[in-house]
């Protein structure tokens, strides 16, 4: 199927900062497409350009197409077909839950009877039905976040844009929101997601674009990124001084070492190799053998040092 979003050679500069550098990608309908990376990677900037909140650098080689519209010229047309959840909640604390959604529905000229039905459905969907008459200031952080996502779905959008939707939430609320996003995908809603939670991207996304300093460093299905860029298992040792000197100087075959302050990591595709290494080389201390994940991939590619 043809992509609903096509971006080619996208650039954005803020004074001396290059926020986006020749970014290109495409999003197919019905997918959850994720931008993954640390704070400052350029995820939110790319997102804002897509729905028209931020202008891009002028460049004849740049193309941004969303449902056939250019956000630089047809911002309202894109917003009419999309639901946007920004990082900030932006709810009116003087109004109750129902009033917040009813006012928002008027932006889309939804009739009062249809709006009421849609609001009741969404509040039930996000497990907020009992809070319909509650003031915003009475809601928890997780409830507010679910309400903001419900608000973005009032117009039954073809595209749901989520900018770090679970940042700062506890694990229980995060998993509830993940379940709702999965249900929306089953209803053929295309989801565009930014996050710096590696697990969130792996759990939700069909396709991931990993960003660093405004550039794309890799892209693909989560499982494929793992298979092609990192070993399957890692042995993490918190107290490297407890490794015998002989093993530290001459590690076993089929093991790759990453030495970072405070932690030694030994990677291998064979878990038995790591178990044998731990049994034979650890004199004492704390260690863990686990499967590798997207965070290991990202840190392997970008390094473990902070880049301000």
Q: What assembly state would you assign to the polypeptide chains in this entry?
A: single chain
Number of strands: 13
Helix content: 25-40%
Poorly predicted runs: none
CATH homologous superfamily label of the largest domain: P-loop containing nucleotide triphosphate hydrolases
CATH architecture of the largest domain: 3-Layer(aba) Sandwich
**Strand order in the sheet with the most strands:** 5-6-7-3-8-9
Number of domains: 2
Q: Report the mean per-residue pLDDT as an integer.
A: 90
CATH fold naming of the largest domain: Rossmann fold
**Highest CATH level, the class of the largest domain:** Alpha Beta
Principal-axes shape call = globular
Helix-strand pattern: EEEHEHEHHHEHEHEEHEHEEHEH
Work out the radius of gyration: 23 Å
Distance between the termini: 40 Å
What's a concise summary of this model?
The chain is of the alpha/beta class and 308 residues long. 33% of the residues are buried.
Describe this structure in words.
It contains eleven helices and 13 strands. With 308 residues, the chain is of the alpha/beta class. The mean pLDDT is 90. Strand 6, helix 6 (171-186) and strand 7 form a beta-alpha-beta unit. Helix 3 (97-106) crosses helix 4 (112-125). Helix content is 34%, strand content 25%. Strands 5-6-7-3-8-9 form a six-stranded mixed β-sheet, sandwiched between helices. Strands 11-12-10-13 form a four-stranded antiparallel β-sheet, with helices on one face. It has a three-stranded antiparallel β-sheet with strand order 2-1-4, with helices on one face. It is globular and about 75 Å long. The chain folds into two domains: 5-220, P-loop containing nucleotide triphosphate hydrolases (Rossmann fold), CATH 3.40.50.300; 231-291, Alpha-Beta Plaits (2-Layer Sandwich).
